[in-house]
Amino acid sequence: MLLVFFGGFIGLLVTGLPVAFAFFLINIAGAYFFMGGTEGIKQLVLNMYSSLANFTLTPIPLFIFMGEILFRCGIARNVLNIFDKFFGRIPGRLGILAVAASTFFSGLTGSAISNTALLGSSLMPEMRQRGYGKPLMIGPIIGTGGLAMMIPPSALAVVLGSVAQISISGILVGGIFPGLIMAFLYAAYIIGRTFLEPSMAPDYEVPRSDPVSIAKEFLVYVMPLTSVMALVLGPIYMGIATPTEAASLGCVGALTLSIVYRKLNFSTFLEALAATLRTSSMIFLIIAGSVGYSQIISFSGAGAGLISAVVSLNLPDAILITIMLSTLLLLGCFMDQIAMMMVTVPLFMPIVYQANIDPLWFGIMMLIALDIGFTSPPFGLLLFVMKGIASDDISMMDIYRAAIPFITCNLFTLTLILAFPRIVMFFLQ
Question: What is the pTM of this model?
Answer without folding.
Answer: 0.73
